[in-house]
């Protein structure tokens, strides 16, 4: 996020744990109780004026297919269901909740040429 990426956590469930973890990570865009994740993604994109071509999504189960249909880069953790793994552009080496999102964040920052700046910032602390 400090590198200029917008991060949203879209969940079909309502959970205080999601709210707490998102706060710990500094994720400001938390959408819970989403009846349709794709619809919520569309609203998020419209609100921040982000095109689907500029959007990456990560998901591990069938409700995440709606996110994938509105994203140009699709990521799945190693333990995602087969239907998600089939349409994902990239499958992480790590499972959901065990570093998969961090793996994707690092990959995106490396592709964008921002990773070295992130590392340098931490090295200076």
Continuous helix count: 6
* Overall mean confidence score, pLDDT: 93
- Major sheet details: 3 strands, parallel
- What's the β-strand tally? 5
Please outline the helices and strands.
Blueprint: E1 8-10, H1 16-25, E2 29-31, H2 37-48, E3 56-58, H3 65-68, E4 73-76, H4 82-87, E5 90-91, H5 100-111, H6 115-124
Parallel strand pairs: 1-2, 3-4, 4-5
Task: Provide a quick synopsis of the model.
The chain has helices spanning 16-25, 37-48, 65-68, 82-87, 100-111, 115-124, and strands at 8-10, 29-31, 56-58, 73-76, 90-91. With 125 residues, it is α/β, with parallel strands linked by helices.
Please give a structural write-up.
This protein has helices at residues 16-25, 37-48, 65-68, 82-87, 100-111, 115-124, and strands spanning 8-10, 29-31, 56-58, 73-76, 90-91. It has 125 residues and is an alpha/beta fold. It has a single domain (8-124), classed as HAD superfamily/HAD-like (Rossmann fold, 3-Layer(aba) Sandwich). The strands form 2 sheets. Strands 3-4-5 form a 3-stranded parallel β-sheet. The protein has a two-stranded parallel sheet with strand order 1-2. The longest helix is centred in the middle third of the chain and has 12 residues, at 37-48. The model has no long low-confidence stretch (mean pLDDT 93).
Key descriptive features of the protein:
single chain, 125 residues, alpha/beta, Rossmann fold, two-stranded parallel ribbon
């Amino acid at each position: 996020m400090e590198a200029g990426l917008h991060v949203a956590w879209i969940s079909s469930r309502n959970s205080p744990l999601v709210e707490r973890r998102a706060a710990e990570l500094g994720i400001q865009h938390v959408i819970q109780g989403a009846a349709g994740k794709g619809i919520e993604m569309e609203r998020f994109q419209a609100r921040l004026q982000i095109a689907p071509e500029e959007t990456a999504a990560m998901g591990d189960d069938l409700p995440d297919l709606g996110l994938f249909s509105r994203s140009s880069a699709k990521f799945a953790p190693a333990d995602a269901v087969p239907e998600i793994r089939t349409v994902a552009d990239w499958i992480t080496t790590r499972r959901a909740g065990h570093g998969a999102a961090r793996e994707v964040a690092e990959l995106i920052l490396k592709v964008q040429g921002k990773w070295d700046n992130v590392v340098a910032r931490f090295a200076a602390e």
